[in-house]
Design brief:
single chain; 60s Ribosomal Protein L30, Chain: A; 2 domains; 8 strands; 56% helix; globular
Length: 431
């Protein structure tokens, strides 16, 4: 069926491995391609200039660069420039950094050879990297999504060998938006899982990341709290709390720069974790089969992607809360053998409850939003299974999920147009 091919294409496009926050990863990737095209020793690179859109700027200000102890776009650009031979790794370019490379990146910043410029009023993701050496200049442009390389040039001429993409991301997004939510549920129930090895890869990658994050729990604030209360004899961690804390701990570790890849979903590693870990925790508790878990993850990821086509890859509202946690909630109801109407109730209920949560950049505080959102996903799944649903016409609730998401899109585009500017002004003052 046409819908099946479309949904498979969306999953293959939107489930991508990344090490570190995707915003610092995409800046590093653009810088790496520009230096690769310039083809000179880094000692001869005189300047690295990076232009980014508002949302990329906002989301990269406070996140850790994997394995370095550093944060921010400038350091990400420096690491990417010094890792130009690793551009073939895509958004995993920042993985496993060499200590010598880290020191060289610090020197680039001290020598003021890296400059970051925010470009306002640019729709969607845009990263433009320019590097110079004498009379030589090279550039790389990523646009539309974090790994969508649309141009690499040296001295105004196309650089051969760069994997330039001609894919029309807007058309794919528009085609997904034309589907009704029931199409997603049907796909999750019937798809041949052998055609989607990416789902099992996402499961394994994100569970491994979560397990490694838990090993370092004592170094994470959320982890230390869990350890403290779990040791008390009268403390009982219920199913909702377990899913909350495990997911939040993983998000916190990622934001602090744990040097391991995760499978991103719809442009975000945090969204990948939130759309995965709660579903896994519930599946373990109710002893679901592997097939049921994989199908629930298909629905969770597709729900996340579906919602993001309405809100935008980067937007003023929290993608973990208003997309990935909604996806996880749908996957949980799926695991509980809920029907289409009950899964749709879960989507409507969570969007209705969480639509106003803002995105004020990627940082450790995202773990608290994940904590809250996952708790709602688990708890509201019980209500949805009992057919409790916010009625259509209440607030932004539409007659069906598609209508609700169109209403959400209107809020983001018409009601929050100045939100990011205000948030960035506040964040800049706090630096």
């Amino acid at each position: 069926m046409k819908e099946d091919a479309l949904l498979k294409a969306a999953l293959m496009r939107e489930l991508i491995p990344a090490t570190g926050c995707t915003e610092v990863g995409t800046v590093a990737l653009a810088a790496g391609w520009a230096v690769r095209a310039l083809d000179v020793q880094m000692d001869h690179v005189e300047s690295i200039e990076i232009e980014v859109d508002n949302n990329t700027y906002k989301n990269a200000m406070g996140v850790g660069i994997p394995g370095t102890g550093e944060t921010g776009l400038g350091f990400a650009a420096a690491m990417g420039a010094l890792s130009s031979m690793g551009v073939c790794h895509g958004l995993q370019i920042l993985e496993n950094p060499n200590p010598m490379t880290v020191e060289k990146a610090r020197r680039l910043l001290v020598e003021n050879r890296v400059r970051i410029e925010r470009v306002s009023k640019t729709p969607g993701i845009l990263i433009r990297a320019k590097v110079r050496s004498g009379n030589e200049e090279a550039s790389a442009v990523i646009q539309g999504s974090h790994d969508h390389l649309v141009g690499v040039q040296k001295n105004g001429n196309p650089y051969p060998g760069a994997p330039i993409s001609g894919q029309d991301l807007c058309k794919l997004s528009d085609d997904i938006k034309s589907l009704r939510y029931g199409d997603l549920v049907k796909y999750a129930r019937t798809v041949d899982l052998e055609e989607l090895p990416i789902i099992r890869q996402a499961l394994q990658m994100n569970v491994h990341f979560c397990e490694e994050a838990q090993k370092g729990a004592s170094s994470q604030k959320i982890g230390s709290v869990v350890e403290k209360y779990a040791k008390q004899k009268d403390f009982h961690v219920d199913l909702s709390a377990k899913a909350q804390f495990v997911t939040a701990l993983a998000v916190e570790a990622r934001m602090k720069g744990l040097d391991l890849p995760v499978m991103t979903c719809a442009g975000s590693g945090n969204q990948g974790l939130v759309a995965t870990i709660p579903v896994v925790e519930i599946a373990k508790n109710i002893r679901s089969s592997e097939e049921s878990l994989l199908r629930a993850l298909v629905l969770s990821y597709m729900t996340t992607i579906y919602i993001k086509t309405f809100t935008g890859i980067l937007s003023p509202i929290c993608g973990c809360g208003v997309a990935a946690a909604v996806g996880a909630g749908s996957g949980i109801v799926f695991l509980l053998s809920g029907g289409v109407s009950q899964i749709e109730a879960q989507v409507n209920n969570m969007v209705g409850a969480m639509a106003g949560i803002i995105c004020d950049g990627a940082k450790s505080g995202c773990a608290f939003k994940a904590l809250m959102a996952v708790g709602l996903a688990v708890d509201s799944s019980y209500l949805s299974m009992e057919n409790v649903r916010i009625p259509s016409g209440d607030g932004i609730m539409g007659k069906e999920v598609l209508d609700t998401l169109k209403n959400l899109q209107k809020i983001v585009e018409d009601g929050m147009s100045s939100m990011d500017t205000a948030i960035i002004e506040i964040m800049d003052r706090n630096v």
